[in-house]
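User: I've been going back and forth on whether these two constructs are worth ordering. Before I decide, could you fold them both?

Assistant: Sure. I'll take them in the order you sent them. The first construct and its C-alpha cells:
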Amino acid sequence: MSFSALGLSEALVRAVSEIGYDVPTPIQSKAIPAVLAGGDLLAGAQTGTGKTAGFVLPILQRLGESAIAPRGARPIRALILTPTRELAAQVEQSVVTYAKHTPLTSTVVFGGVNINPQADRLRRGVDVLVATPGRLLDLAGQRAVDLSKVEVLVLDEADRMLDMGFIHDIRRVLRLLPQRRQNLLFSATFSDEIRALADTLLDRPATIEVARRNAPAESVAQRVLPVDRARKRELLSHLIREHRWFQVLVFTRTKHGANRLAEQLVKDGIPALAIHGNKSQNARTRALAEFKSGALQVLVATDIAARGLDIVELPHVVNFDLPNVAEDYVHRIGRTGRAGAEGEAVSLVSPDENALLRDIERLLRRQIARETIAGFELDPNARNEPEVDDRPPRQPRGAQRRPGASRTASQGQPPRGNATTPARGAASPRGAHGAPNSRGVGAFRGRSSQRGR
C-alpha cells in the first residue's frame, strides 16, 4: 500500500517521498484512515514505529481540505500535547517537514526558554501548535494563545504524561478547548490507565494496537553483560573502542551519574556529553544536534531527557544503569531499531541490579541473553553497592502518588503554584460524529488521586 492510497494529497505524498518513505508502517496504515474518518482514536504502538506521521499526516490533510481564510491571525486548529521539550520540538519538526508543500503553518512552545518570542509567534497565528502542558498554560495565563477554534486535539505519549503527573494540567487545557473536536490519544504503551483515560475522554473511538503491550521492537538485539559496578565505565570504554561504535546513546539513572560518566568518557578520549533536566534547554538542544549529526560519539542521558528522541538508524543503546521502573527499559531500547532498522541494546548489569533485571525480564516474558566479556568477569569480593539516586521518588504506573507533589524542572516544565488546581466545569470532548461527549472531563476525578500532583 502507498501513502497516496491512504487518501493523502499529492503535496503530502511528495513531502513523504522526499524524505525517503514509500510504504507506510503498520501504525500509519491503520491510523491515517481512522483519523481522516473524523472520529476519536486510541492508538498504541511501540516507539519507533512511525506513530508521529500516523497523526501528523492526516491532521494536515484534514486542515488542508477545510482551509479557511481568516481576516486576522490564523486560528490554532490543531493542538498536539507532548510530555517533554525534546519530543515537542521533534513533533513540530515533523509537522514542518510534512507541510512543506502546503500553506499550513506551525510552531512549538515549551518551558526552559524565553516565553516572549513564543507569545509573539502565537499572536501572529498558526494552524498547528505543538506544546508541553505547562508552557501552554503559562501562555494562556498571559492571554497569548487562543484555543477556541481547535478542531483536533492530540495527546502524544499520553502514558508518560500521566506518569509525570500532568493530569491536572491536561484538565485545565481541556477547559480552553471547544466542545466539538476530534480527540486522538497516541501512546508508546497501552497501560490500564491509558484505557481508563480513553474511557473518560474519547467517544466511541477506533482502537489500534500494532504491538503487544510493553513489547520491544523485534529488530533490537538485546544482551546483558554482567560486570562489577566499579568497572562499568571501563567496560563501556572497552566496548566503544573494541567494536568501533560511532554513535552510542547511554542511559544512567541519575543526573549526577550522567555528568560523571560523560566526564570520564572524555578523559578516556571518547567525545561525550550529558543531557538531563538540570541542563539548559540550549545545552540540551546543542548536544542532541551534535549527536544526530555524528559530531558527538556518545550521548549520556537520563530517562526524562531522552524521552521521545528520534535519531535515524541509531545503532547502539547502552543501559549503564538499569531503570527502577521496568517499563522504562522498553522505552530506552526503543531509541534503536526504529522503523524496521536493526539496532543493539546492551545492559551493563552489576550484582546489585539483579532484582531490577528480573523485573524487566518478567515484563518482557523472557530472559535476555547473558554474555561475559573476557577480562571483566565478576569479582566475588567486589563491593557492588547501588548508586545513590538523586531524583524524587517515581512510582510505577498505577501506584499511589504523594498528594501535593509538584512537577520538577527535569520533567520538562517549571513548577507552578496553581498546577494542582482541578478543573471545574470542563468542556465535554467531541464525539466521533461531532456531538458533544456527555462524559465531561470531570469524570477524571475518580482517578485523579492516582496521578495528581
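The second construct, handled the same way:
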Amino acid sequence: MEKDLILTCDTGTTGCKCTLFNVKGEALFAVRRGYPTQYPHPNWAEQDPDVILEAMLDGIRELLLQVNAQRIACVGLSGTMNGCIPVDGEGRALYPNIIHSDSRTEAQVRRILEVVPFDEFYRLTGNRADTHYTLPKVLWLKEHEPEVYRNARWFMNIKDYLYGSLTGRMGYTDYSDASLTIALDINKRRWAGDLLAELGLDVDRMPAILKGHDVRGKITRDIYRRCGLLPGTPVAIGGGDGACTTRGSGVSEPGSAYCYIGSSAWVAQLLDHPLLDEKARIFNWLDMDGEDYHVCGTVQCGAAAFDWGLRNLLGGQGHSADISIVENMARQIAPGAEGVLFLPTLMGWRTPYWDPNTRGCLMGFSLYHDQRHIARAIYEGIAFALNSCAEVMAECDAPVRSLMLTGGGARSGLWPDMIAAIFGLTTQVHRSPGETTSLGAAIAAGVGVGLFGSYSDAAGMVSARSTHPVNPQWQEAYAKVYGIWSDIYGRIKPLNDRIAGL
C-alpha cells in the first residue's frame, strides 16, 4: 500500500489538532481535542503534559478510523513555544508545563539582566529578556521547586515532550523552539553555555537540537498499542507553532512575509540573518532548518481585542455580536471611521513599545457616532497595529514585499482589503487560513522522508484563495489617519503609567 499521507499533531493553547494531509498539501481529515489550562495563582498558567499526550493519542485514534495506518508516511509535530516542562531521565514530567502566557518570573528576569545587560542579551539571543520565555522559568523552578530542578534531566517544550513519548527519544528539540527559550546563541546556533553558567544553570540539562525534518525517531510498539500508528513510522520533531506557521504560509525568501490574525497577531518573514533592531522592538528565532531566521513583530491582542469589542461594545447583555453583522456595520463607514480611533492594547503593547502598562483606548467619538463607527475603528486599530510591526522591519532594511494572510481573522471579508490599503501592499489570503500551522509541520515531515525536495520546494504548493490589491482612495485616507493613531501611545503613556500604579 502506498504511503501517501502525512499525519500532523499541533498542540495549541486550548487543544490538539490532528490532521491528515496528502502530498499536495491538502487537509483531508482533521479532529481536535481540547484540554484545560490551570491558573493556580495570579499570572500563573499551567497545563498537564500527560493530559495533552492523551488528547493527541485520542485524536490520532479517531483519524485512523478514516484511513489505513499503512498509508501514513510520517508524523509531523508542532506546539506552543516558550514553555517549560522539567522531565526526568525516564521521560516523566515532574511538573506541569509552565506555558507561554505565564508571567510569574519577573524576579528571574531582573536577575538575568543583572548578569547580562539588556543590549548584550538582545544581541546574544535575538530576543528581549521577558517573563514569557523559558529561561526565567527554569530559574524559577531552581529557586522555588529545588527538588523538581534537582531531579530534572531536561527542560523541554510540549512538542518535544510528545516527540519523546511517541518515539522513546526524550531529550531533543528543534532549532525554532530552542531559539525562543532565550537560552540559545542566535548567531552561533547553539546553547549559550556562558550565559547559563553565569546564571548557575547546567547546559547539559538543555535538550539536544535537531533540524525540524529529522526523522530518526520512530513510533514505538507501546504507541502502536495506544493509538494504532504502526511501529517504525517516522516522526519528524517538527517545530514551534510560529516556525510551522511561517512554512505553512508559503514564506520562503526575504521580503516574503505573512500576517497571522488570531487571538494574538503578528507579521513575520524569513531572512538569512537575524534582524537586530537597535531598539529591540522585534524578535528573532531560527527556522526549523537551523539555517534561516524568522523575524517577527507581534500584537499582543489581535482577534482577542476584536472579540472583546464584539462582546462588550457591539453585543448586548454580555453576549457577542454576530461577526457578519458587525462586518456589514463597519462597511457602511468610510476609512478612518470619521475620527473614531481604537488601540487594541488590552494586554499591554509588544512591538514596537513593549510596554505592559498600556491599556486599550477608544477615542474620538461624539454623539454623532454610533456602533458602526466603533466596529470600523476596531478593525482599523488592529490593522494599524500590525502595520506598525512591518514599519519596524522596513526601518531595519527588511521591508515587507508580499503578504499572505492566515489565521481565523484572514477569513474576514474586510481585513484583507483594509490591510492592503494600510500596508500599501497587495495581500493574499491563504487557501486554508486555519491549517497553516499544521501544514508547516507536514512540510517538515515531508522533507524528512523525501516527499518534498526542500522547504522551498514545498512552499510552491501553497496557494491563495483570493488576492486583494491596494485601493488608492483607502490608502490615501489611511495615510492621514495612521499618523494620528500612531501619536496616541506617546500622548497617553503618562496616564497609563499612573493607572497601572493604582
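Notes on the second construct follow. Residues 128 and 254 are 23 Å apart (CA to CA). The first strand starts at residue 5 and ends at 11.
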